[in-house]
């Protein structure tokens, strides 16, 4: 695991009276501020285990934004942070510096209790944001979601939405406010105006093996949320074979840092711990996940996806004071899926963010087969079959994601184009009994066929056992909540 966030210094210097510039000695002019350190010196300091001051961190972030930091220097600093870690104060300082690298979002004061958002640390088949943002808007929330692209083997929300022809992820702050007024939600990316430093570092992390750095994850997530001026945030922290962190204990460490740093920045953050060994839902790949998100907004779709959407939504409605209990909030989100109001908000969001209104309407009102015709597809399909009788114990998400990455669903370098139609459909569910030869996976690919190693890797991802059929459990494992407000009347569930 990456070097953790460690506690900062516990002691603080004694206050100095405003007119005592010497701090207790003879009066005189204040000492001049120290010269800012050059980037090689900052990199060397962190490489050797030193602590960066807030001014050091601001200097590094400023160099990233103005272009004076070379790519090699950015990569070196990211690796130094990955290996040496940051304490809580450094992590909070990095979060503030990233957030202040661009424009701050300002909303009407009356919106304050309604402003909520959700973020995920990244999973395979994780299309929760596509469903939850419009569902929350249908419940009366304002959701200014600043999201990201794929990192490593995990799919990015923006990449999925851009597989819909015409969808535009870059929106100005003024456009975001109009979207929240008209629709109640938007899903956008970083731009030169919104957290530009994080956009640069985010791409660099993807190609420098620094995705799993705990302070970098924390600062990246929270910087995008600090500028949103939220009432509440829930972070879906994944753990398991296909997550950034393999164990629940590691995920809890990140969850506690997110909650703690969020509190120090004045942001109420809850962190859900959810399992990521199996793919979430039954579709992996950009257009396939859009289709599955629409099925969820039809009131159907896989049970694990629906469960996670409603639980996370329930936490947010409760945390922001819009529901008396988490269960009540979850029931409201479920109703928005069942009555079509979430799907209506999704259609309106698509049209407001550049999708032709006729296409948005056809996507949201059409059958699954009709939707498939409207979205980019792959040229070929190939089915894999169960090698023996047995009960599906698990479908390993990581090898599935890696093969799809090789086929063009992911990036190997920043800015590389994706193949939106590449993906895979699980034809079975965990707990289901199979007979030998039963189709269990359908791969959508632009290549003529899977290679031998790819086919073997996928077949080995299917875990069969002699167990009797069983019901799959929810991926939701635990929840880390912020300290209660002193005046709050809610009780922690």
Automatic annotation (TrEMBL):
It holds the Pfam family PYNP_C. SMART domains: PYNP_C. Pathway: Pyrimidine metabolism; dTMP biosynthesis via salvage pathway; dTMP from thymine: step 1/2. Its EC number is 2.4.2.4. Residues 391-465 form the Pyrimidine nucleoside phosphorylase C-terminal domain. It comes from the Eukaryota. InterPro entries: Glycosyl_Trfase_fam3, Glycosyl_Trfase_fam3_N_dom, Glycosyl_Trfase_fam3_N_dom_sf, Nuc_phospho_transferase, PYNP-like_C_sf, PYNP_C, Pyrmidine_PPas_bac/euk, Pyrmidine_PPase_CS. Residues 1-39 are annotated as: Disordered. Keywords: Glycosyltransferase, Transferase. Residues 1-16 have a biased composition (Pro residues). It catalyses: thymidine + phosphate = 2-deoxy-alpha-D-ribose 1-phosphate + thymine. Catalyzes the reversible phosphorolysis of thymidine. The produced molecules are then utilized as carbon and energy sources or in the rescue of pyrimidine bases for nucleotide synthesis. Belongs to the thymidine/pyrimidine-nucleoside phosphorylase family. Homodimer. This is Thymidine phosphorylase. It comes from Ceratotherium simum simum (Southern white rhinoceros). The gene is LOC101402904.
């Amino acid at each position: 695991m990456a070097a953790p966030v460690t506690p900062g210094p516990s002691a603080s210097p004694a206050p100095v009276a405003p007119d005592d510039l010497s701090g207790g000695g003879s009066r005189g002019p204040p000492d001049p501020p120290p010269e800012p350190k050059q980037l090689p010196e900052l990199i060397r300091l962190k490489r050797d285990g030193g602590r960066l001051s807030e001014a050091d961190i601001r200097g590094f972030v400023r160099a990233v934004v103005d272009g004076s930091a070379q790519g090699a220097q950015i990569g070196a600093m990211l690796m130094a942070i990955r290996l040496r870690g940051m304490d809580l104060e450094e992590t909070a300082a990095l979060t503030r510096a990233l957030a202040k690298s661009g424009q701050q979002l300002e909303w009407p004061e009356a919106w304050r209790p309604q402003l909520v958002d959700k973020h995920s640390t990244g999973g395979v088949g994780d299309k929760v944001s596509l469903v939850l943002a419009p569902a929350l808007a249908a419940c009366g929330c304002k959701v200014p979601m600043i999201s990201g692209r794929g990192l490593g083997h995990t799919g990015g929300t923006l990449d999925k939405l851009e597989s819909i022809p015409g969808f535009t992820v870059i929106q100005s702050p003024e456009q975001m406010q109009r979207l929240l007024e008209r629709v109640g939600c938007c899903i956008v990316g970083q731009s030169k105006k919104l957290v530009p430093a994080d956009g640069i570092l985010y791409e660099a992390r993807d190609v420098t093996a620094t995705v799993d750095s705990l302070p970098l994850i924390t600062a990246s997530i929270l910087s995008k949320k600090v500028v949103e001026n939220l009432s509440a945030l829930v972070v879906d922290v994944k753990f398991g074979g296909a997550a950034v962190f393999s164990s629940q204990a590691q995920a809890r460490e990140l969850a506690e840092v997110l909650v703690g740093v969020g509190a120090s920045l004045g942001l109420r953050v809850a962190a859900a711990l959810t399992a990521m060994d199996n793919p979430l839902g039954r579709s992996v790949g950009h257009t396939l996940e859009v289709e599955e998100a629409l099925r969820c907004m039809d009131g159907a779709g896989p049970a694990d996806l629906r469960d996670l959407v409603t639980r996370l939504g329930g936490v947010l409605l409760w945390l922001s004071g819009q529901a008396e209990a988490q269960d009540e909030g979850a029931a409201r989100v479920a109703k928005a899926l069942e009555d079509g109001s979430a799907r209506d908000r999704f259609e309106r969001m698509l049209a407001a963010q550049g999708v032709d209104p006729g296409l948005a309407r056809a996507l949201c009102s059409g059958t699954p087969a009709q939707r498939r015709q409207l979205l980019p597809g792959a040229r070929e399909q190939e089915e894999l079959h169960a090698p023996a009788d047995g009960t599906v114990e698990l479908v390993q998400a990581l090898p599935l994601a890696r093969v799809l990455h090789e086929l063009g669903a992911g990036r190997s370098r920043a800015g590389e184009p994706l193949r939106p139609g590449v993906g895979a459909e699980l034809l079975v569910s965990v707990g289901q009994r199979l007979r030998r030869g039963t189709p269990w996976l359908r791969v959508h690919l632009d290549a003529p066929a899977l290679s031998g190693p790819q086919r073997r890797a996928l077949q080995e991802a299917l875990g069969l056992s002699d167990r009797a059929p069983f019901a799959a459990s929810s991926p939701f494992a635990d929840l880390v909540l912020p300290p209660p407000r002193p005046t709050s009347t809610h009780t922690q569930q």
